[in-house]
Each structure stands twice: as C-alpha cells, then as structure tokens.
Amino acid sequence: MSNNLVIDNLHISVEGQPIIKGLNLAVKQGEIHALMGPNGSGKSTLANALMGHPFYEVDSGEVTFDGEDILGLEPNERARLGLFLAFQYPTAVPGVSMANFLRMAVSAVRAENSNGGETTELIPMREFRRELRDKMKRLGIDESFARRYLNDGFSGGEKKRAEVLQLAMLEPKIAILDETDSGLDIDAVRIVGESVSQLIGSELGVLIITHYPRLLNYIRPEFVHILLDGKIVESGGWELAQLLEDEGYDPIREKYGIAPL
Amino acid sequence: MEAEFIKNPLCAYEVHKGNFSREFVEKISSEQDEPQWMRSLRLDAYKRYQSLPMPHITPDDVWRRTAAMCTQDYWRRTARNMRGLKLEKYQPVALTPNGKLMQSDPVLPNTSAAQVQSNEASGVIAVQDGRVVEHALSKELVRKGVYFADINTALQERSDFVRSYFMTKAVRIDWNSFDALHGAFWQGGFLLHVPKGVVVEIPMHVFIALSEANRADLAHSIIVADDSSQITIVEEQLSADVAAPGLHCGAVEIFVGRNAQVNYAQIQRWNHQVWNFSSQRAIVDRDAEFRWITGALGSRLSKLNQVSVLEGAGCRVDMLGLTFTHARQHIDIHTYQEHKANHTTSDLLYKSVLKNQSQSVWSGMIYVHPEGQHTDAYQKNDNLVLNKRAHADTLPGLEINANEVRCTHGATAGSIDKEQVFYLMSRGLSYDQAEKMIVAGFFEPAMGRIPLVSVRKQLQQSVTDKLAI
Ligand SMILES: Nc1ncnc2c1ncn2[C@@H]1O[C@H](COP(=O)(O)OP(=O)(O)OP(=O)(O)O)[C@@H](O)[C@H]1O
Ligand SMILES: [Mg+2]
Fold this sequence. Notes:
The structure holds 2 protein chains of 2 kinds. Chain A is an alpha/beta fold. Chain A has a single domain, classed as P-loop containing nucleotide triphosphate hydrolases (Rossmann fold, 3-Layer(aba) Sandwich). In chain A, 36% of the residues lie in helices and 27% in strands. Chain A contains 9 helices and 12 strands. The termini of chain A are far apart. In chain A, 43% of the residues are buried. Chain B is of the alpha/beta class. Chain B has one domain. Chain B has 12 helices and 24 strands. In chain B, the strands form 3 sheets. Chain B has an 11-stranded mixed beta sheet. In chain B, strands 6, 7, 9, 10, 12, 14, 16, 18, 20, 22 and 23 form an 11-stranded mixed beta sheet that branches. A two-stranded antiparallel ribbon of chain B has the order 2-3. Chain B starts with a strand and ends with a helix. Chains A and B meet through helix 2, strand 7, helix 3 and strand 8 of A and helix 10 and helix 11 of B. The site of adenosine-5'-triphosphate (ATP) has 12 residues of chain A, from helix 1.
C-alpha cells in the first residue's frame, strides 16, 4: 500500500521567519511515527500547516494525501480526506455543545458527497448518541461532557481527552497528535495510549509529537524522527527515543553543527 | 384532547386611510364612536406631537430648548439614519363598523381556531393593518374570567378598564414625539386581562401584520396580570409583503401584579422597508416575576424603548434580547431597569449579531432609587460583528441612589474568532457551517434562557436565514 501522507521538501515560515526548511516525511495507515524536537523547533508549525492553518505560510514543497496535492485545500477538505490534528492548544468555542459540534463534524466528514457546504445531512440522532456514549465510556470521559461547551472551561487534561474523543469519532486515516500526552494524568495517558493503539489496529496511521516517552510506552513507534533547525536530521527506531531520553539533544546538535540554544 | 374555543364573529369595518392631521384624529374617534375620555386623550396627544421635536428634522438648538425628558442624546446615534423618514408618506386608518360580519380573506393564515383547538395557543388575535382579522380564545379561559380582545373591541366593551391603564401609568403620551403620535392615532393591538390567581399554561399568540404599502400601524398592547396569575404571551410582528413600505409606531404596556408570573416575547420581523418605533414599559409588583424576551430581526430602522419598573419589593425581571441585523438595517434599543423597591432583582442580557453594513445601538441604564436597597441588578450586552462595515455601539449605564446594592454591567464587541473558525473547519465543517455554529454559540446564553421552544425555533430559523443571505 502506498503512503497516505507524503511531505516533500516542505518550507514553512511564520511572519516571514523560516521555521521549517526542507522537511521530508511519509506516513501511511497502520504506521506509528514519533516526531521529537526541542521547544520552538517547529513541530506545531508543521502540524498546523498540514491542517491548513492560514497563519502558517507554506513557501515551497509539496504535501500529498492519497496522491492528491492538499496544499491548496481548505482545512475541512483535508479533514474529509482523512487527516486529523489533535491540537496542542485546542480552541474553546463557547455556547457550542460538544454533542452538537461532534454530530455536525461526524456528519460532515462521513458525508458521501465531498462538496461540504450547507447541505450536510446530519446522521441520525440515536445512532450518533449510541456511538458517542460508547466512545466516551471507553475513554473514561463522563457523559456530562457531551452537554458542555466545546473546550470552554475544560482543564488541560480534559481538553486533551476531548481531542482524543474527536479522533475516535471522526475515524481519520492519518492523525497527528501534538503533545496530546502533556497535561494528562497517569491513568489518562494509559487510556489514551490504549485507545489510540486500538485505532491503529483498525487502520489509523499516527504521527505523535511528544517530549516524553511515556505515551510511547503504550504506542511503541516504529519510526522516530528528530526535528532540528527546520529539518528532520535523524530518523530511527525506538532506540533513538531512548537515546534522546538519556542524553538530550546536545549530541545531535553537535553532530550536525547546530548551535545549542 | 382538543380544546373547546370561542371564535368571535368579527365585526367588519370600512377602512378610511388618512394622514397625521388633527382632523383625522377626530375622524378616527368619531367613526368608532369612542368615549369622550379617549377622544380627549387623542387630541391631547396630538397637541404634544405638534410641540415635541422630531428627532431627525430638529436642529440642535431646538433640542437644547426642549424641556421634555426625551433628550437629544437618546436619539443622537439613530437620528442621522432617520433622514429618509417622511411621515407624511404613511397613512393611519380610521375604522367605521358597518354592522356586517367580516367577509374579506385576511393575509394572515386563518388558523386561530385550529391553534387553540390543538392546544398550541390558548388564545389568538391577529391584527392586520390596524384591523382585527382573527380572534379565538379557549372556552376554559373564558370561564375563568380571562379577557382577551382586540383593543378597539375592548374599548367598546370595557371602557373603564381600558381607561385606567391606557397611557396613564406605563407609556405616556409626552415622553417623545412618537409616543405622542401613537396616542393620537393608535389603532389595533389587544387587551389581555388575567384575573387573580388564574394560571394559563398554554401561551397566547398575537400577530400584528402590515400588508398594504405605506400603511401606518399604531398597535397598542395592554397586558394586565392580576395578583398570583401566570401567563405567557408571544407577539409576532411581520410584513405580509416583503417590499411594501410601512411605519409601525407601537406601544406595549404590561402590568404584573403581586406574585404573578408573566413571560412576554416579541418577535419583530418587519420587512426592510418598515420604520419601527416602539415604547414598552412593564410595571412589576411585589414578589412577581417578569421575563421579557425580544427578538429584533426586521425593519429598516428601529428605535425601541424598553423599560422595566421594579415597583414592588422582592420582584424579579429578566430582559433577554437577541438582535440580528443585516444589509443596511439599523436597530437601536434603549433599555431601562428601574429599581424602585427593596430586594428587587433584574438581569438583562442582550446579544447582537451584525452583518454587512448594518448598525446596532444598545444603550442601557440601571437606575436605583433611594428606596431600592438590596437591589441586585445585572446588565450585559455582547456584539458579534461579522463584517468590517457593520457597526455596533454599546453604552451601558448605572445610576445608583441607594447604598446597599449590587449592580454590575458589561459590554463586549468583537469580530468572529478566526481560531475558532479554523478549529471547526479542521473537523470537517465548511466555513459557513463553522460561522453558523459560532453565531449559534454566541446567542446560546440568551437562547438557553428562553423557556418557549416555539420561540427558540423561530429565532434559530431567522438566524439561519440571515446567515444564508
Ligand atoms: N502563532 C504563532 N505566532 C507567533 N509565533 C509563532 C506562532 N506559531 C509558531 N510560532 C513561532 O514559530 C517557532 C516554532 O514554534 P512551534 O510552536 O512550531 O514549536 P514547537 O516545536 O511546537 O514547540 P513546543 O515543543 O514548545 O510545542 C517558534 O519560534 C514560535 O515562537
Ligand atoms: Mg508545539
């Protein structure tokens, strides 16, 4: 099977400042990738740009999803192709209940015709409710969450769980988890780890952005990539994550002649 | 179970169109053979109308010389958009009862009886171009002594009752020129009287419609809820013709007795050719609860003056407002929370969404009298401006003359949050769907406090329609 998400020589800048400078990466369904890199190295920049955030300017390079160039697509079109981003800092939308939002999102993503727009037919309420209740239960999320306003007043950990719930509901092909483990308590890391593992079993490919190997103990990545100075400087297996944990980024910086921060 | 109802055979009228002249005031009064007191009230009001300044054509120095409570400041933000108003273009009506029963087919759906029968409403009145065209009331309420009639009929049947409330205690003829105009030329509207202790569970529906071009509607509404009664009234104002120019100059007077509970919802959906002026005042007695729901969606320009007087100790007033303007609409709402007694609570929440080049003005005042100790008053106005060219003015105000009070107010204005749009779109929603969801979320704190499903649905539909334009 060919790769779903292919990033080729991508350059991204933020307010005129180059952040990602020639990045290559390919992720396919069923695969587990970890992306690690120091604070400010551009991990979230990459994630947001892949999802189509207008603030991040793609200067050059190519990104395809199932062979289709997605850089000209709107964020919702990317979502409908099967790309998902669990945000490092999810946005609150006051007044919009989790349940209403999710029903709309699930309906939009699952809709047969890909034109989107106002014509989206909502999936039947009962079917939706049952699915939502099941998935919330599996993620250890209280039922009252469905009535709460989207990320509004959620604790840090609650926001992250809500992101994983959305992932479980939207059933994308490829998901980027941007520090989804940060802010989660020990039990929640395990629950999230197990749930994501399950989804991977059913054909999800993930790119996990993290600083800690804790989550990776539950979802053992086959590929570990290190982002430094706007590029992936090193890719390896699980041993690379362990090396980082023991020695930090300095040896790698030295190796590639990148000045320490 | 189906409800029994009475459907009054409606008297047919000959309709005379007129103008805003003294002669026509006399004609209105004499054609309907009004009691002397009403005739004098009309003529008094006409005199006031002539002496009070018209906001849009009055030079500044005249304002300065005017001692009336109606200040220049009250009109300032709206007067410049009123320049296109030519009062002489609009025709008030005089009605001559011709002794026959009504035959004409009204523009409004002839469903009042069906609504009552199916328990959708316990009473319905529809007024079109100043003339009542529909009326039905549940028999049970008739037995309980509820009186519900168009106001012209009420004036014939209950002159003394009308007299003690009509523009005496609540809305006055001398507050501003439009109130004076209303007093002189009023026609149509309704009187609802709920006797002591009567609890009406199913809402009453009132429709006020404009259909003929250049018609002036001057509907007058009076609601009297006696002690310990309970009632909900939903009033819809609408244009039968999407393009017919019109003028509405209305008044609403509400009296909430001790321990009574009243909900009054007014949904205004005039077309964009209608000038809309309205003075509304509720007087709320001891331990009563009054909920005021305003959906302002239509009209070319609106100037609404809405006053809640917390007259009896321990009473509570909620004022909820949802406005959505688009194209070149201009909606100006002035609210007043007047605390006259101790331990009174008022809570106001007005939410406005603006699109295109539309404008909205909200100015609010919490006024606490020295007698208003232990007042708890809250006031909040939020504006969501969807386009750069739309403009929202928000002017909260407090005037407190008692020392043991808690009064808070807040106002916000902002455009749609791009991060929210991106977040929702990243989950598969189109831009339009995301915008719709954010707007619905913006209205939700007010919408969620409306206890009437039908009103919520109507407002939600209007929001959807407006976003789609
Ligand atoms: N929205 C933004 N506004 C301003 N600067 C930004 C924004 N997003 C990213 N940047 C800048 O781009 C650079 C990369 O930031 P980014 O958030 O991608 O780093 P990161 O690798 O995700 O870091 P962390 O591990 O701390 O999450 C930083 O210098 C950051 O300040
Ligand atoms: Mg980051």
